[in-house]
Amino acid sequence: MDPFLHAFNEMLTTTYRSICKVEELMLRKLSSGELSLHEMHMLESIGKHKGEDVTITDLAQDLDITPPSVTAMVKRLEHKGFITKSRSGVDARRVCILLTEQGRRAEVAHRLFHRKMVRAITKDLTDTEREAIATGLKKMNAFMDESIRECVDGKEE
What is the longest distance spanned by two Cα atoms in the chain? Predict the structure, then answer.
């Protein structure tokens, strides 16, 4: 493998592991070990809707997981006190999910962590460097999306 590609692969792997480890440690500190990373991402998804009615279907689509998986996670998070469920005032068949104060604090802290990380990474970059990173990440995301589609469709190249 080309030396640059080898080094780049190592950087990607190390960065991925580091982000996961930092988020895991941050969650452990933030929630006394109560929240998993998947649960935190659920709180983040609920928080993005800023008090609007958020349903199981909305969360499943946003997180790209099945509604039964969302339902199970919602039950766990409700039991832990991070969210509440209620019936929609517009359509009583719809269950709406809301963050509790504890859930809001966790979601805000997680959002601030991401903001701090992004600012620290980008603070001294030139416009050219910012553009190069954005272009590289767009290409990486496109590759990941295509790889997911191939795996789901059962067609690996």
Answer: 60
What angle, 0 to 180 degrees and rounded to 10, lies between the N-to-C axes of helices 101-122 and 37-48? 90
Q: Is the dihedral of CA 70, 95, 100, 117 positive or negative?
A: positive
Distance CA 85, CA 157 (A): 44
Burial class of residue 69, CB neighbours in 10 A (0-12, 13-18, 19+): middle
Kindly state the tokens that stand for 77: 């998070």
Question: pTM of the predicted model, to two decimals?
Answer: 0.80
Q: What is the pLDDT of residues 24-54, one digit of tens each?
A: 888 888 788 889 889 999 999 999 987 678 8
Expressed in angstroms, the distance from the first to the final Cα of the chain is 20
Helix (H) or strand (E) holding 95: strand 95-99
